[in-house]
Amino acid sequence: MANMERLNHVLEVIEANPDRHDQDHFRKVTHCGTTMCFAGWAVELYGEWLVQESDLDRVTERLSFMTKADRFASESAEEILDLTHDQALALFYDAKSLEDVRLEVKRIGESQ
């Protein structure tokens, strides 16, 4: 069963920081700071990245979205949020905008 408390918290953080949300990248350094998708934010809030944010500009893109558990951000976030694989795919890959993310979180909650 999905952890709705964590899902809603991640959504709240994204809504409070829309300039740091980008569904196209798990975690990416931009000229305005680091942006993250929903899965990236879940890892940021409840997991542990392999590479610290201050070192992102010195590592490969692949290493930028690996967690300390030697897993991709999407795999760690799926576990952190207690999602089914299908729920994770819809939220992390199919949702392209903040509005899409809101709808997916709502769908997950309604399916509980």
What topology does this entry show?
Elements: H1 4-16, E1 27-30, E2 33-36, H2 38-46, H3 61-64, H4 73-80, H5 85-94, H6 98-110
Antiparallel strand pairs: 1-2
Give the gist of this structure.
The chain is mainly alpha-helical. The protein is built from 6 helices and 2 strands, in the order H-E-E-H-H-H-H-H. It has helices spanning 4-16, 38-46, 61-64, 73-80, 85-94, 98-110, and strands at residues 27-30, 33-36.
How would the global form be characterised?
globular
Tally the helices.
Answer: 6
- Major sheet characteristics: 2 strands, antiparallel
- Report the portion of residues in β strands: 5-15%
Total E-strand runs? 2
What is the residue-mean pLDDT, rounded to a whole number? 94
Q: What class, by secondary structure content? A: mainly alpha
Rg calc: 13 Å
Strand order, biggest sheet?
Answer: 1-2
Q: What does this entry look like structurally?
A:
It is a single chain. The chain is mainly alpha-helical and 112 residues long. It has six helices and two strands. A two-stranded antiparallel sheet has the order 1-2. A hairpin with a 2-residue loop joins strand 1 and strand 2. The longest helix is centred in the N-terminal third of the chain and has 13 residues.
Give the key terms.
112 residues, mainly alpha, 2 strands, 51% helix
